Amino acid sequence: MNGPVGPRRVGRVRPAETTEGFRCGGIVLDLNHSETEAPEDQASGTAGGMEHPAPLRPYLIAAAVLCALYFLYGYLRFSHFESPSWDLGIFEQEVRAYAGFDAPVVDIKGPGFLILGDHFSPLVALLVPLYWIWPSAVALLFAQAALFAASAVVVGRTVQQMLGGRSGLCVTVAYGLSWGLQEAVKADFHEIALAVPLLALVCRALLMERWRAVVLWSLPLVLVKEDLGVTVALVGVLLALYGRRVQGFLLAAFGVFAFALTVLVLIPAASSAGTYDYWKKIDENGGQEVSLLDSVLGVFNSEVKLEMLVFLVGITAFMALRSPLVLLVLPTLGWRLLSQDSNHWGMVWHYSAILMPVVFLAMADGVRRSQGSKRGWLVAYANVAVPMAAAVAIALTQHLPLRELLRPETYRTDARTQAAEQALDAIPVGSRVETDITLMAHLTGDRTVYWVGGAPGTAPDVVAINLDFGWSRPIDDPVKYAEQLHPEAKYRVTRRAGSFVVMERTTPVPGKG
To answer: Between 20 and 30 A from 448 (CA), which of 49, 143, 250, 391?
Structure first.
C-alpha cells in the first residue's frame, strides 16, 4: 500500500467519468485536480498530480518520535492519577474480557453490563494480542499512540507523493501536532484510535484512485463505532462522484445498512434498556424534549461550536475546503453539532481525532488543485499553505497538551500521587472494588471494578474514594457514605492517605453467610 510507485498520474478524475464540480459552503469543489488541465507530457510537478519519491525511512523516524511523545504524555498522566474520565477503565475491562474469551462485560457501566449495548466497537478485540503480553491499561495507551503515529506515516507519505519537496515532512509535523490528536491523547484511550489510520488509508486510496482499496479500508470502520457507518456511506457517495458509480452505490448502501443494523437492532439487543440510548443526546436537553429544528439552529448559536469549526479548517490554512474529501467530516460533525451534550461541541476530548487525517489529506488535494489555477494569487497561496500549516501547528502546541512535556514538574512525583499509590497498595488483588475515576484504571487489570454509586446490591469487598474527586458531592463521613451506597453491608477504614480513603467490608457477602 505504501511502497514505491511509478510515475503515473494519481488522483486525477478522467474526463469521461466527471468533468463538473459542485458547491460546498459557497466554494466550488472541482472534481478535477486543477482549474486548467496540465500538459500530458509534463513529467513531474504538483499541478499535474504526478507522484514524487517518498522514501519510507524518514516517516518511520518521525512516527517513532510522535509515538514516543504521545505515549510519554499518556503514561505520565496515568502514573500521576490524572485520568479525565472512566473510559480507560471501561476499555480495559472490555479488552480484558475479550482476552479471556468472555463476553465483553464492563462492570464499570453497571454489574454485568454488556458494552456492545452502549457503543458497537467489536474491533477493539484486535488489541487482545498486545493485552496478552502486557495486561495493563498502559498497553491501551501505547496502542493508541502507535495507531496515531502510524496514521502520520500514511498522511505524510501521501502528501509527499502528491506534492513533492519537503511537503510530506511538513504535513507530518502539522498533522502529528494537530489539536485533534493531542486532545485525544489527553483523553486517554478510545476506540476511535482504530479509525484514525483506517480513515487515513481510505483518503489516500481515494487520492491515488485505488478504488478497491477505498472499499476494503472502509469496511472495517463500521466495527469501530456505530456512527461511522454514515461516514462509510459518504465514502461511497464520493466514489460515485468520482465515476465509480457501482462501487460507490454499493458502499453507500452498505454504510447505511450497517448504521441502521447497529443502532436499531444490534445495540438494542445487547442493551438492558432495549434501545440505543444516545438518541437522547440529540432530542433531549436536561430531560426536556428538543425539536430537530432547534438542534439545527443551535449550531449557529454557540461560540464553542463555531470556534471548533474554524480551527478544524484553519489548521490546514483553509486549503481543505478546496477538496471534495472534506465532505467526509460531515457525518461526525453532524451528530456532534446537533448533540445537546456540550462535551461534543468543542476542541477538547477525543471526538475530533478522526477528522484530522481527512482535513490534512484534503488540504494536500486542495493545494494540488490550486497550483494549477489561472488565479495567480491562489497559486501563490497554495505554494505556502503547507509550511503555514506546520507553523500553525507548532504555534498552537504552546497551548495544547504536549506542552506539558517541556515542564520539569510534569516528571515529578507529588504528594497526591504518593497518597494514591498507598491507597492502591491497600486494595487486595482479586477483590471487588467500587471507586471513582482517580483509581479506576489502575485497578481494572486484576480486580473487579464498579463505578462508585453504580453498583447497588453488590456489597463490594472494598469502597475506595478520593474525597477531592469533583464528580461527587462532598463527603464528611466516608464510612457512612459507603454504607448508604450499600445498606446491606458494614465497612471500616483500612487506609487513609491524603484525600484517599480505602474501606473494607466487615460483614459477609449477603446470601453467602
So the answer is: 143
Cβ–Cβ contacts within 10 Å for residue 305, how many?
19
CA–CA distance, 147 with 150 (Å, rounded to integer): 5
Radius of gyration of the CA atoms of the chain, in A: 25
pLDDT tens digits for 296-320? 666 666 788 999 999 999 999 999 9
The candidate with the shortest Cα–Cα distance to 178, out of 77, 102, 70, is: 70
Collect all residues with Cβ–Cβ distance below 8 Å to 412 and sequence separation of at least 6: none
Distance CA(209)–CA(203), nearest Å, equals 10
- For residue 491, list its beta bridge partners: 505
Q: What is the largest CA-CA distance in the chain?
A: 87
Instruction: Name the residue ranges covered by the structural domains of the chain.
Output: 56-406, 418-505
> What is the rounded CA–CA span in Å between residue 392 and residue 377?
21
Helices 137-163, 87-99: crossing angle, 10 deg rounding: 100
158 Rama sector, left if φ>0, alpha if ψ -120 to 50, beta otherwise: alpha
Residue 196: all three cell numbers together: 484514525
pTM to 2 decimals? 0.88
Quote the cell numbers at residue 386: 503547507
Q: How far is CA 159 from CA 200, 371, 377, in A?
A: 11, 14, 22
Q: What is the pLDDT of residues 134-190, one digit of tens each?
A: 999 999 999 999 999 999 999 999 999 999 888 999 999 999 999 999 999 999 999
